[in-house]
Write a structure and sequence with these properties.
five-stranded mixed sheet; elongated
C-alpha cells in the first residue's frame, strides 16, 4: 500500500543494495579477527613445536677418572651445541642435580651402564636424553638400565597433565573475559572487577577438582595447586577485563596472543626451553604459563625447590592485572560525560512537595 505514496520532502531513497553492501563490509571487517588468529596460532604452535631439537641440554657423566672426562668431552663435542655435558663425582650428586632441575640426565658408565632421568621435570627431555645414551651404551655392547629419580604420579604417566590443566584454566579465564567485557561493558568497573575475582575463584576450583579427585594428575599438594590456579586465573581475568576498555572488539585477539599463542608455547608443558627455539625459551623465564607449570612441578615433585621464583612470576602478573584495571578506571572516568548541574529547589518548595506526597 505504501508503494504508491510520495516520498516525504527532503528525504532520499536509499540506493538498492546499499544495506547488504554495508553489512558485507561489516562482516568482512570482523572476519579479519579469526584470520589473524589462524596466522598467529600457526606461527606460534608450529614455530615452537614442529621440530624440537635439544640445545645446551645439561647432562652429567658420573665419574672422576680420565675415562669419564674423555666420554663427557666426546659427547659435548659430538653434540655440536645440543648437549652441555659435565662430570659429577658420584651418583648422589647426580641425583641432587636432577631433583634441583639443573640437570636432565646422568650417565653412569661401566659394564652395566645406568641412566638417571627425572621425568617430572619433562618427559620429552627425559626421552631426548635416553635416546642419546642408548646409543652410547649400544656402542659398548651393553644394555642400558634407566632409573627415574623423580617420577610423575600414576594419574599423569606422560607428565603432561599439568599442561592440559593449564589449557583448561586458560580457556575458562579468557572466555570469561569475553563475557564480562562484552555483556558486562555497561556495568561499573568495580562490578566487573568483582565478577573477574569471582570467576577466577570458580575456574580455579574447577581446575583443582580436575587435578585431584577427578583425574588424579597430582597425588599430593592439592591446596598449593589450587592457590597457583587462582593466582594464574585472576591475573588473566584482570588483565583481560582491563584491556577491554582500550581494545574493545580486538580484546579477544589480544588475550589469545598473550595467554594462548605465547603462553602455551612457552610454558614448558610439552617441551622445555632446552628443546625449543630461543624466543620461546626466553619467554619461559617470565611468562605466567611457565610460572604455573613449573610452580606446580616444583611444589608437587621437587619438594618446593625454586618455588618462590615461580610464585613471584604469578604474583607479578596478578599485580599487572591490578595496574591495567586501574588504568582502565582512569580512562573510563575521562570518557564519562559530566553530569548536568541540577539547581537546588528552594526550601519552601521542598516542604510543600513533602506535604503533597504525605512524607
Amino acid at each position: 500500500m505504501s508503494a504508491g505514496l510520495p516520498s516525504a520532502p527532503g528525504t532520499a531513497s536509499a540506493p538498492a543494495g546499499s544495506a547488504p553492501a554495508g553489512a558485507l563490509r561489516h562482516v568482512l571487517g570482523h572476519l579479519l579477527t579469526p584470520l589473524l588468529m589462524c596466522v598467529g596460532m600457526g606461527l606460534a604452535y608450529l614455530g615452537a613445536f614442529h621440530a624440537p631439537q635439544p640445545h645446551d641440554l645439561r647432562v652429567d657423566v658420573v665419574g672422576s677418572g680420565p675415562s669419564a672426562q674423555v666420554l663427557a668431552q666426546t659427547l659435548h663435542d659430538k653434540g655440536d651445541g645440543a648437549l652441555d655435558v659435565r662430570t659429577v663425582p658420584d651418583r648422589e650428586t647426580a641425583v641432587t642435580a636432577l631433583r634441583e632441575q639443573t640437570s636432565f640426565g646422568a650417565y653412569l658408565p661401566g659394564d652395566r651402564p645406568e641412566l638417571l632421568v627425572a621425568s617430572a621435570s619433562s618427559d620429552t627431555s627425559a626421552m631426548a636424553v635416553e635416546k642419546v645414551f642408548t646409543k652410547v651404551a649400544a656402542g659398548q655392547d651393553a644394555p642400558l638400565k634407566v632409573t627415574d629419580a623423580a617420577p610423575v604420579s600414576d594419574g599423569d604417566p606422560t607428565g603432561q597433565g599439568v599442561f592440559f590443566l593449564l589449557v583448561a584454566l586458560s580457556i575458562g579465564s579468557y572466555a570469561s573475559v569475553a563475557v564480562i567485557g562484552g555483556a558486562g561493558a555497561v556495568l561499573p568497573l568495580r562490578i566487573r572487577a568483582l565478577l573477574a575475582a569471582g570467576m577466577s575463584l570458580a575456574v580455579s576450583l574447577v581446575g583443582t577438582v580436575f587435578a585431584g579427585p577427578m583425574f588424579h594428575l597430582v597425588d599430593r599438594g592439592l591446596g598449593g595447586v589450587w592457590a597457583m590456579s587462582w593466582l594464574y586465573s585472576a591475573g588473566i581475568l584482570l588483565i583481560g577485563v582491563g584491556l577491554h576498555t582500550f581494545l574493545r572488539r580486538w580484546t579477544t585477539l589480544g588475550v589469545m596472543v598473550l595467554f594462548v599463542m605465547l603462553n602455551f608455547t612457552s610454558s614448558g608443558g610439552i617441551y622445555r626451553p632446552e628443546l625449543q627455539p630461543g624466543f620461546f625459551g626466553a619467554l619461559h623465564a617470565f611468562w605466567n604459563g611457565a610460572g604455573f607449570v613449573e610452580g606446580v612441578r616444583s611444589h608437587v615433585y621437587f619438594d618446593g625447590h625454586a618455588l618462590g621464583g615461580h610464585l613471584l612470576t604469578l604474583a607479578l602478573w596478578l599485580l599487572a592485572g591490578v595496574a591495567v584495571m586501574a588504568c582502565a578506571g582512569l580512562a573510563e572516568a575521562r570518557r564519562r560525560p559530566a553530569a548536568p548541574a541540577v539547581p537546588a529547589a528552594p526550601a519552601a518548595a521542598e516542604e510543600e512537595m513533602e506535604e503533597t506526597v504525605g512524607v
